[in-house]
Amino acid sequence: MAYIARPEAKLLAETMVAFANADGGTILLGVDEQGQIIDYLTDDDVEGELVRAMVMCRPPVVTEWEQHQFPDGVVVALKVARSPELHALMDGRVLIRQGRENRPPSGEVIRHLAATKSSGDFEAEPVSGATLVDLDKHVLDEYMRLRQERGSRSLRGNLQDHLIEIGAMLEDGTPTVAGMLLFGKSPQSFLPQSGIIFVKFLGKDARGRDGLAGYGRRVELDGPLARMIERAWNIVREEMRVEAVVTGLRRKELLEYPAFAVREALVNSVCHRDYRLSGRKVEIRMYSDRLEVISPGGLPGYITLDNIVEEHFSRNPRVVSGLFQWGYIEELGLGIDRMIEEMLENGHTAPDFEAKPYAFTVRLHNTREREPAAQRWSSNMNERQMRAMSYVEQNGRITNRDYRQLCPDVNPETIRLDLVDLVDKGLLLKIGDKKGTYYILK
Q1: pLDDT digits (tens, 9 = 90+) for 130-173
Q2: Which one of 139, 170, 190 terminates a domain?
């Protein structure tokens, strides 16, 4: 039991989260710690602060409230049940109720709560009306083959036993939400919100010119998760600009956005979205200056924008495990780190992450703060010089003698002038003098 004399959103949110993370409880509004009614509450007082408090909880805490009239005033009893999920406040704090206080648990306790609370309960629920026939045999065969190629342990029993083991099916043969998302013939027939929408806008915003539509292409994707991820990637790949870059004697295509960063954003959007939110699909919005991937549902558990790189928590662990075994997730828990690295290594700014109570957005910008090294080298350079730059990249340095061996048919004076030109362009740095001279990347 908790007593709050006057409803105030911040304290109310803290107490709701603390009760939901513990064993539940009742919050009495309009009553002091001694049980005395001290104020007269109105419906507007309670509803306004309760709405503000709900916005501060991630995910929202389910409550029921009753109003009781007494001679001294009105008391509102707000009932909070023990939640199957781990709840946090908007600032990332996790609280639990201990005695009469809302206390922050240690990191180890938080991890224990995350492990013991069934945040993935929805993905484990049966899909009403679905049977084994609604799962796609071809998709299942592909999953099993790729799973074995990854070196996973051999299966015990038949396929149905394995589906039960991984949480894709109940023992009576009914597919679960996770099973339908991963292996269903038509998951959207049962879970309409599980699709993906791709929209390519013409400019930097969603508005069109002269009252016309603001987009040039719109595609709705459906099917099991693996198929949608591949189709979404192929569409984004088709719409990305591509530059040709020459490194040494090799020609390489430089995509508008690094492939890994895009694929990681796509995989995360279907892995970690909140599938309980009906009417909301994953959205991929491609503008002229950025790519946005919007996933329904706020950040799960104790994850915040401040700890998103270091901490890892999954709202749908069965879906994550399935896509990992499939090969769509290379190494659990390292995707965000590598996404940031890929963007920076390709000259872009780091991705932007935006968290709202009911949506999480990954935003990749296509403008580059600097060009990748290979692209800088390729400008105003002859073939010999590109060969020399590749040599330096591989060996750390190059001498005049090394260069002559790379180009044995070229006049020594031309070799010398090539090196002077690379120094003048600011690509190489000359070290030493006379016979001890060598060149390194500047």
Answers
A1: 999 999 999 999 999 888 887 766 666 788 888 999 999 999 99
A2: 190
> Could you read off the pLDDT of 88-109 as tens digits, one per residue?
898 888 899 988 899 988 777 7
Residue 235 lies inside a defined structural domain of this protein: yes
Residues 266 and 243 in one domain: yes
- On whether the CB atoms of residues 143 and 326 are closer than 8 A, the answer is yes
CATH of the domain at 24: 3.30.950.30
Same domain, 229 and 355: yes
Side-chain-facing half-sphere of 435: CA atoms under 13 Å: 0
pTM of the entire structure? 0.63
Number of domains in the chain: 4
For the stretch 108-125, pLDDT in tens is 777 667 655 655 578 999
361 shares its domain with 390:
no
Q: What is the Rg, in whole angstroms, of the alpha carbon atoms belonging to the chain? A: 29
What phi and psi, each to the nearest 5 degrees, are found at residue 360? -130, 130
What pLDDT is attached to residue 153? 65
The conformation of residue 433, written as its DSSP 8-state character, comes to -
Q: Note the pLDDT of residue 300.
A: 75
What number is the average pLDDT over the span 299-319? 78
Residue 340: pLDDT above 70?
Answer: yes
| Contact of 203 with 214, CB cutoff 8 Å | yes
Domain-terminating residue out of 142, 161, 190: 190
At 39-66, the pLDDT tens digits run 666 777 778 888 899 889 988 888 888 8
359-365 and 428-431: which strand pairing?
unpaired
Strands 96-98 and 242-247 turn out to be unpaired
- Give per-residue burial for 335-355: e unless 16+ CB within 10 Å, then b: bbebbbebbbebbbeebebeb
Residue that has been written with the tokens 């969603």 in this structure: 206
Taking the C-alpha atoms of residue 376 and residue 366, their distance in angstroms, rounded to an integer, is: 17
> Looking at the structure, do residues 347 and 384 belong to the same domain, yes or no?
no
Spatial separation of the C-alpha atoms in residues 440 and 389, rounded to whole Å: 9
Residue 166 domain flag: yes
Domain with 149 in it: 122-190
373, part of any domain:
no
Contacts of 319 (CB under 8 A, 6+ apart): 123, 178, 181, 182, 225, 270, 271
